[in-house]
Amino acid sequence: MSLRETPSNSLPPIPSAAGGWNEAFERLGNAVDPDIDTRHRELERPVRVLMIGAGHRGSIYAGFALHSPGEMQVVAVADPNPLRRNRLGDATGVPAACRFDDWREALAAPRVADAVIIATPDREHAAPCLRALALGYDVLLEKPIAPTEAECRTVLAAAQASGGIVAVCHVLRYAPYFRALKALLASGAVGQVISVQHLEPIEHRHMCHSYVRGNWRRSEATSPIILNKSCHDTDIVRWLVGEPVERVQCFGNLKWFTQRNAPPGSTERCIDGCAVEPECPHSALRIYHRERQRLHVFDLPPDQTQWEPLILQRLRDTDYGRCVFRLDNDQPDHLSVNILFRNGATAAFSMEAMVSYEGRRTCIMGSLGDIVGDMEHFVFTSFKDGSRREWRMKTDAHGGGDLRLVRDWVQAVGQRDKSLLSSSIEVSVESHLMAFAAERSRLNGTIEAVAV
């Protein structure tokens, strides 16, 4: 089978290797394609889910019920925002009596669900998770598990004690690109993993939207950016190497999005007659008003003819309209982490805001070959004969992993089989401990041990 690009609005099969490739590549299709995972089977009935959080991430996960109604059904929703709550409830057919404005109310109501998906703000992850586990629900928990190490360990202990199916939303593990990388490493074609270089390019507008103007701009109010943005990456590096982490070291700071870099003539809000707004790459008027990007945070009505005045009003009333150089943000806009694994392998991870692109970049150096990739394409070069082999697939956000993640969790819940999950709760917590240790290192100038 030859390589081909495949749209990812569904859950497509992943192309296997081209003719003449070695056996490891010939097996890649079956190894990473969830649609032909022999462990998956038709469930006796759909898993009934209570959605706690109906924002952007919650809506994506709830979308699996529309994609595969025979596997998952959303039967209740809790969100304090009535527009989001009812939008998700209407889309998934949740009755009015099962729409709640608070997770406490939802979990206190007569039980209608088998499991809970938690997609609330970072600091509201642990409490509903602990309550759901105490009530005997299975749980899919958006990352991060919690904003503190102590809370993460508490959730771990509760999950272990409950005996339930508990998964964390490490969606990159389900991206076809990383599944293909993992399968290739497992085949032995690369030999021993000696070192990994991994880059997370946030893209400068994404950084402005989420970590300068947005809800995650202050670490004390949410969690450090290495945790809330990059625990995906600490997890994926740990997963690819397949060894426990011993020590980490981190450097990084907030260099660009600060008051001292505010251009002469700039104003508190982009809409206030800022002299440099027309040429500013971070202009809120450009991003939200003229180019209509990232508007999901504004909770706009379906009728787009009503958007113009509402967007302008949001830019006057919310932090999304403020100058990126005049906020109270404290999250680093660049950082680098050195990681030492128990077996002597190393990894270097960088998170960068000041780039024009998104999509992780990965270089893997092995004893028998190396791999260079960019989330949609990678090249493996063998040291034995110098041959080069390629994998390529066009994907969507998170590399196409979102619905694949939900599918594995639903199958695990439906079959009562934790082994169907890509990551145990123990390993998920370890990736968070890596992030906490990296943040301590960054702040204190230390090399930190990672103790699970």
Automatic annotation (TrEMBL):
Annotated ranges, domain GFO/IDH/MocA-like oxidoreductase: 178-253
InterPro entries found in the cross-reference section: Gfo/Idh/MocA-like_OxRdtase_N, Gfo/Idh/MocA_Oxidoreductases, GFO_IDH_MocA-like_dom, NAD(P)-bd_dom_sf
Domain of life per record: Bacteria
One Pfam family in the UniProt entry: GFO_IDH_MocA_C3
Domain Gfo/Idh/MocA-like oxidoreductase N-terminal intervals: 47-169
PANTHER family reported for this sequence: BILIVERDIN REDUCTASE A, BINDING ROSSMANN FOLD OXIDOREDUCTASE, PUTATIVE (AFU_ORTHOLOGUE AFUA_4G00560)-RELATED
Protein name: Gfo/Idh/MocA family oxidoreductase
